[in-house]
Amino acid sequence: MSILKFTVEKNTTLGKFVKFKGIEEKKFLKALKIGGVIVNKKRVSCANKKIKKGDIVSICIDESPPDFEFSKEWIVLEDDFLIILNKPQGMTTQGTMCYDINHLFYFVKEYLKGYAGLHHRLDRDTSGLVLFTKKREVNKAVSQMFKKKEINKTYIAIVHGVLKNEITINKPIGLIPHSSPKKWWVNMPQSKKAETLIKPLKTFDNFTFVEAMPITGRTHQIRVHLASINHPIVGDKFYNQEEGLKNSLMLHCKKLEFNHPVYKKRITIVSDTPLRFKEFEKEREK
Hints:
alpha+beta
């Protein structure tokens, strides 16, 4: 993937500007189709759009969105106000700069044929439960629930090494300066408080099956915290340069617990443990 970025020199149309810059028409039209053309931070889908001197044009070349088709089997709860889905591994929660189709948010909006409110995210390679609102009038209540830590999330993970005791990791997390792609770590400049409760469930063949409950909600929090105590998540090559296994990331959001914003009853949603976890454990126990 490459991202081409230009400053427009004179008033014209997007199509004429791209042709002048020598960008292959086929690649430009593909970028338009999947939402990979951005003018002044807004996606554009029409080659005839008028642009003016000083506009900033970004075009993603050779980018492909995840190859998924929506399945109703992803839905684990739906009522008049909320919908919770079990996101597959490999799919982004929302679009990237380079595409705006075939991500979970896109599929939910297509399924609902209208509005959907996104309030939290999972990494592309983290599977599990994601909650959306179906009506704008409950957005404020749900946002406040996330802000006040009233929505409890429980993840499962398989980590390297033997972790015998329950531990609360309390290390601030911040962006590593000048990292590209962006990467986070503990005790960085301008770090923010981050706290994760880790409970070991089972050990096998120098690995530990754990529950992870983030008390705060920093980017990559569970991955960073576990790597920082020398128990990186299996398959996390981003935070474990020495990862020698070919497995995908062994991290899954398994449970959500909260009070319904309208009905006020306690909701507990538990998803099935993904097959990749069961296969990994079975293979190591032979």
